[in-house]
Amino acid sequence: MTRLLSLKTYICILLLMAVGCKGVSQEKEEATVNEEEQTETFQVVKSEEEWHKELTDIQYYVLRKAGTENPGSSDLLNNKMAGTYVCAGCGTALFSSAYKFDSGTGWPSFDREIEGNVAFDVDYKIGYKRTEEHCAVCGGHLGHVFDDGPRETTGQRHCINGAALRFVPSEQ
Ligand code: FE
Questions:
Q1: CA angle (117 as vertex; 116, 120 as ends), nearest 5
Q2: Which one, 14, 74, 106, 134, has the greatest CB density within 10 A?
Q3: CB atoms < 10 A from the CB of 93, how many?
Q4: Is 22 in a helix, a strand, or coil?
Q5: Contacts with 153 (C-beta within 8 Å, 6 or more apart), sequence order
Q6: Is 90 a catalytic residue?
Q7: Has residue 82 got a pLDDT over 60?
Q8: CATH number of the domain that 83 lies in?
């Protein structure tokens, strides 16, 4: 009997240790994720007040609050002129007009970014995993990238808020 009890006690202790370890390892994982978020630094850093002053309401909502504009609302959606789409926050060149295609979604879409000027992250905001993209220089939110783009080129669909962009026509 004593032996049986001690075996039960032993098992209980083992279980408690296992649960305890799991708790600790989860805390560690979360801490690592948070640290990674905090380590991304940007060349252009401004206070919320400064961004508010410089940007329109919709630009601020998209770039600084990671909001999404209504589909079909951007003047740049059907723009077919040759030029460069730059960050509305800091002017960094993000997409070339050569990469633009009509995705039919209501948001300006590109099959690739100007390499090095766009940075990527993962978000679960609407319940499933998406690859978020933002300006690599100021951190302004741009949109998301999906893998259902044109197969004849990259297969990527960079679904970008027009409010995050400013169009600079090519010099003729
Ligand atoms: Fe920027």
A1: 80
A2: 134
A3: 16
A4: helix
A5: 111, 112
A6: no
A7: yes
A8: 2.170.150.20
**pTM: predicted TM-score of the whole model, two decimal places:** 0.77
Please report whether residue 20 resides in a domain: no
Residue pair 57/66 in contact by the 8 Å Cβ criterion: no
Total number of domains constituting the chain: 1
**Digit-coded pLDDT (tens) for 2-51:** 555 565 665 545 554 444 433 444 444 444 444 445 568 999 999 999 99
Burial of 2 (0-12, 13-18, 19+ CB in 10 A): exposed
What pLDDT, on the 0 to 100 scale, is given for residue 125? 86
Ligand 1 centroid, distance to 24 Cα (angstroms): 38
Separation of CA 133 and ligand 1 centre (Å): 11
In angstroms, what is the span from residue 131 Cα to ligand 1's centroid? 18
Using CA atoms, how far apart are residues 99 and 93, in angstroms rounded to an integer? 13
Distance 155 CA to ligand 1 centre (A): 25
How far is Cα 94 from Cα 162, in angstroms, rounded to an integer?
12
Indicate the residue type of 155: G
Q: Residue holding tokens 């589909």?
A: 71
Least Cα distance to 89 among 38, 39, 46, 132 occurs for 46
